[in-house]
């Protein structure tokens, strides 16, 4: 069996585009799926150097690229393959293999046109959402400022409990506007994560949260990759949720006490997970019933559920934007415990 037949036998059941080239950078074999992807025949591609198909390749640096691979190494990249006027965005998995003393790069090539289109649509959707929330915020803040001004004037001449209730409702509206803007921003994917320290960011978050009569403790540290500003927002929201409510259960006595008196004596703890890369935020309040744990991240802004707002929804958006996972469970003291996993530790 010659090498062409051997190559063909190896890739006949792959189901995706395949291109194989050697140390000279020229394709030794391509399958039908790859040729169809570029709208040509296989014979046209065989013998073509890879730098004529992948525009970002510089012929002069191909030798350095080739020498940078180790035997059996695999690399994944997204790029564009072009041939005879056809350009296709692709995801390529390249593996170095040695067969009968000769070394080759085996590339499996997948068309990601649909993925790129979805990314563009998502980006446009995010831009529209941000523009919408900006307009809504502006249009709401103006009458809100006017209302606050009149309440302040009336408070100088009239001593009525109803004015305090109006002032409280206006403050609540202002918080919801801020949360709406954050929710639009926090849903964006993280493009440039940087190394962060859990204890460092948690300490900064703690400084922005009114603990009422409660305590916020920061324990074990872990360093990982994140957007520091958005990560701090996540911690602030989890801390504030614990301090204000003791739990997110609608029937929580701690929550009712927090709503009526502005806080409780809940203890909040932030730390690193012991068995896998990640972190937790937990409290010693009444906890969250298992049946409610799947819905705690849903926005809740109705009068029947006044405490949650968009805080935990923003937490979920930040987690998703980083590609992490978040789960709600029970702390050792029976309170609420939020565990975030899937973080990428600092290299």
TrEMBL record:
The lineage of its organism: Archaea, Methanobacteriati, Methanobacteriota, Stenosarchaea group, Halobacteria. InterPro entries: HATPase_C_sf (IPR036890), HATPase_dom (IPR003594), His_kinase_dom (IPR005467), HisK_dim/P_dom (IPR003661), HisK_dim/P_sf (IPR036097), PAS (IPR000014), PAS-like_dom_sf (IPR035965), PAS_4 (IPR013656). Signal peptide: none annotated. This is histidine kinase. The keyword Phosphoprotein applies. The keyword Transcription does not apply. It holds the Pfam family HATPase_c. GO terms for molecular function: phosphorelay sensor kinase activity. Residues 269-292 are annotated as: Disordered.
């Amino acid at each position: 069996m010659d090498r062409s037949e051997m190559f063909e036998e190896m890739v006949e059941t792959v189901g995706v585009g395949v291109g194989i080239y050697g140390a000279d950078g020229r394709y030794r074999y391509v399958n039908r799926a790859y040729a169809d992807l570029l709208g040509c025949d296989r014979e046209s591609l065989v013998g073509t150097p890879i730098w004529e198909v992948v525009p970002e390749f510089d012929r002069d640096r191909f030798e350095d690229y080739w020498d940078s691979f180790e035997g059996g190494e695999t690399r994944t990249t997204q790029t564009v393959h072009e041939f005879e006027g056809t350009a296709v965005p692709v995801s390529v998995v390249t593996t170095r293999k040695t067969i009968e003393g000769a070394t080759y790069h085996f590339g499996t090539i997948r068309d990601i046109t649909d993925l790129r289109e979805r990314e563009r649509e998502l980006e446009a959707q995010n831009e529209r959402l941000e523009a919408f929330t900006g307009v809504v915020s502006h249009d709401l803040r103006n009458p809100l400022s006017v209302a606050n001004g009149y309440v302040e004037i009336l408070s100088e001449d009239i001593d009525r409990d109803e004015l305090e209730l109006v002032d409280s409702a206006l403050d609540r509206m202002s918080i919801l506007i801020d949360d709406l803007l954050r929710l639009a921003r926090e849903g964006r994917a993280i493009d440039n994560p940087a190394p962060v320290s859990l204890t460092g960011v948690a300490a900064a978050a703690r400084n922005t949260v009114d603990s009422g009569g409660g305590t916020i403790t920061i324990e074990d540290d872990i360093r990982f990759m994140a957007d520091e500003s958005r990560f701090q927002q996540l911690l602030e929201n989890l801390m504030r949720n614990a301090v204000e409510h003791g739990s997110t259960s609608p029937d929580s006595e701690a929550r009712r006490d927090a709503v009526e008196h502005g806080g409780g004596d809940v203890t909040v703890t932030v730390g690193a997970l012991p068995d896998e890369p990640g972190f937790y935020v937990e409290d010693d309040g009444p906890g969250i019933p298992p049946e409610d744990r799947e819905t705690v991240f849903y926005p809740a802004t109705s009068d029947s559920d006044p405490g949650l707002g968009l805080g935990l929804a923003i937490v979920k958006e930040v987690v998703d934007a980083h590609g992490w996972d978040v789960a709600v469970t029970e702390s050792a003291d029976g309170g609420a415990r939020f565990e975030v996993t899937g973080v990428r530790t600092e290299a």
